[in-house]
Amino acid sequence: MNHPSPSPAPRTGQCTLVGAGPGDPDLLTLQAVRAIQSATLLLVDDLVSDAIVALAAPSARVVHVGKRGGCKSTPQAFIEKLMVMAVQEGQRVVRLKGGDPFIFGRGGEEMEHLRAAGIAVQVVHGITAGLAAAGALGVPLTHRAHAQGVVFITGHAQPGARGPDWGLLACTAHQARLTLVIYMGMSGAGQIQEGLRTGLPDDTPVAIVHRASLPDQRHAVATLASLQATIEREGLGSPSIIVVGDVLSGLAASAGVPLAGLQAGG
Ligand code: SAH
User: Fold this and answer.
1) Which of 124, 155, 180 is the last residue of a domain?
2) Residue 94 · residue 48 · CB < 8 Å
3) Residue 171 shares a structural domain with residue 231
4) From ligand 1's centre to the CA of 260, what distance in Å?
């Protein structure tokens, strides 16, 4: 009797959203390294350093989907389509994102898209740039004497959308004693400064950390009133994190930044 020949098992690929951390390969998790090494296709964001991409197998295909080389970044819808197609072809896809995939990385949107296509997604978390910035400064983001909590916030709004209400945020941060960690805030720093000044004292310490964890990392410490002027004077650009709050007061004092509370002996 003839048995029908079994149909070939469907080739199932997989997709992992991997946080590449702030840049230094030593800050990758072991899970991230394993995922990168076993990927057959890597879709890589701009802020992921070459040393990390170099961990991929020589046979892996690497596609840069950021704005490298002055080109426009790949449209998000195209990236999502490519991920689905590659997984359906049986590839082990790694979507490599700077920092943590779920902090301003559009990782959430990508996961929703893949799940809607019936694809299971794994997530490997990474050290987010805000934590790396605090590490670069040597300050804690919370401290019993200075800050009861921390807010990670973007300084960049979606096109056509309203950005954060900086005044409201400043009042809340002042009253609830919160540290603010601002991502993507450099181009709007002047506006952020003016908004925050409506609810926080002018001499609130701020720090700007450029390319945290990378060999050319730089930072500047200032007060809220001189945030924009300091960015301009120091020639700091993107990618940078702006930290705002009293957790920086010790650092500001040692950097000679005039703070009223400290001048008064506090
Ligand atoms: N998912 C990322 C954030 C992506 S948004 C994360 O978790 O870190 C991109 C912004 O992150 C940049 O505009 C900048 O504000 C910040 N950023 C990323 N890498 C950075 C680095 N090495 N140093 C300072 N800021 C960085």
Assistant:
1) 124
2) no
3) yes
4) 31
Please indicate, yes or no, whether residues 169 and 93 belong to a single structural domain of this protein.
Answer: no
| Ligand 1 lined by 243 (C-beta under 6 Å) | no
Whether 101 and 154 map to the same domain: the answer is no
pLDDT of residue 159: 72
Residues 122-138 as b/e (b if ≥16 CB within 10 A, e otherwise) read: ebbbbbbbbbbbbbbbe
Q: Whose CA is nearest to atom 9 of ligand 1?
A: 184
pLDDT of residue 110: 92
CB of 181 within 6 A of ligand 1: the answer is no
Residue 16: phi and psi, rounded to 5, are -125, 125
pLDDT, averaged across the chain = 91
What is the count of structural domains for the chain? 2
Do both 32 and 82 map to the same domain? Answer: yes
Tokens of 15: 């997709």
Q: Domain residues for 85?
A: 14-124
Is 24 touching ligand 1 by the criterion CB < 6 Å?
no
Rounded CA-CA distance 95/110 in Å is 9
Mutate to test the pocket of ligand 1, among 18, 27, 47 (most ligand atoms within 8 A of CB): 47
Q: Is the CB of 183 under 6 A from ligand 1?
A: yes
Q: Which residues are catalytic?
A: 45, 67, 184
- Token digits of residue 70: 């002055």
Task: Report the separation in Å between the CA atom of 91 and the middle of ligand 1, taken as the mean of its atom positions.
Answer: 28
Minimal-distance CA residue to ligand 1 atom 11: 183
Overall average pLDDT of the 109-121 stretch: 93
Q: What CATH number is attached to the domain comprising 233?
A: 3.30.950.10
Residues 134 and 119 placed together within one structural domain of the fold: no
Residues paired with residue 94 on neighbouring β-strands, in sequence order: 16, 42
Show which of 124, 148, 170 is a domain's final residue. 124
Asked if residue 103 has its Cβ within 6 Å of ligand 1, the reply is yes
